[in-house]
Design a protein that fits this description.
Blueprint: H1 3-8, H2 12-27, E1 30-35, H3 41-50, E2 55-58, H4 62-71, H5 79-82, E3 87-92, H6 96-105, E4 108-110, E5 122-124, E6 127-128, H7 135-142, E7 147-150, E8 153-156, E9 160-163, H8 171-179, E10 185-187, E11 190-196, E12 199-202, H9 210-231, H10 236-256, H11 265-285, H12 303-318, H13 323-334
Helix pairs in contact: 2-4, 9-10
Protein name: Large ribosomal subunit protein uL10
Organism: Staphylothermus marinus
GO molecular function: large ribosomal subunit rRNA binding; structural constituent of ribosome
Length: 335
Amino acid sequence: MTLAESVRKIPQWKIEEVEYLTKLFREYPVFAIADITGFPTKHLQILRKKLSGRVVFRVSRNKLVLIAMKRAGIDTSLFEKILSGPNLLLFTKMNAFELYGEIEKHKSKTYYKPGEIADKEIIIPEGDTGIPPGPMLSVFGKLKIPTRVQANTIVVAKDTVVAKPGDKISEDLASLLQKLDLPLKEVLLKIKYVYDRGVVIPGDRLKIDINEYVNSILKAQIQAINLGVEIVWPEREILERVIVKAYREARAIVVESSFITSETIDEIIRSAHFKAYMLAIELSKRGVDIGIKIEKPIIEEKREEKVVKKEEREEEKEKTVSEEELAEGLGAIFG
């Protein structure tokens, strides 16, 4: 048998499928591989409808998918291991995290079936069930749900936990949940891997807390700006802050050293007046009569001065004046 004859025997639908998949792999920079084992067809159709126009859904044979990947120039070494069982391919131009976010946003709920495992606590709520008394009373009894009959219907006396995470769903519980119209099982498409512009991301790495992520970025930005100010990084935004910081620090040094200029004279006088006031207060606490009336100074601080001097003044208020400082202060006041 010649090679040409063996090629002719390949079904036409397989050739067309590989060509179509190859086109999708080349056209879309991002694709996901999802496990659809046991995934309800109804919910898959709903998801397809909601993501129509942004995501292309395709179910195909795994061998044909690998052939198409190779033709599109994608390294298949990883996918050869994970392409087993029934899979769904999702092609998109969104990034991997956007795609996962859209899938999670449109997750739905269905009824638990007998034998399935509860993924969270199941509670039968208090209230009228609308179910007439009869055989169902025994079901409530088996599940240890307190009830009473009122107006010819079964009423649940209080919220009752009937299953915890990891518990197997019994036939009685599955039946009751359907009768009470409680579809509590979350249906979310399980993403195995996402290929995003050459980067392969495992499905369990795709779920992120957006608010936490944004806060982390803002925090990193603030830290980066502060570091830039400290090392005087030559960027416009940084240099503006550096100039303001340098001006404040220089002004504080000038005032502290009592270097008099037309810009600092008022602030130096206010600072001296304040220190004298604090010294007088401390002397009065110790019973020293300095022979003058102590009046609280009126200090009109500029906004920027408050920022520079706030911590320093708070420390001065709390600090205990030593005997030497008292002597120096008295000498300054009385000569």
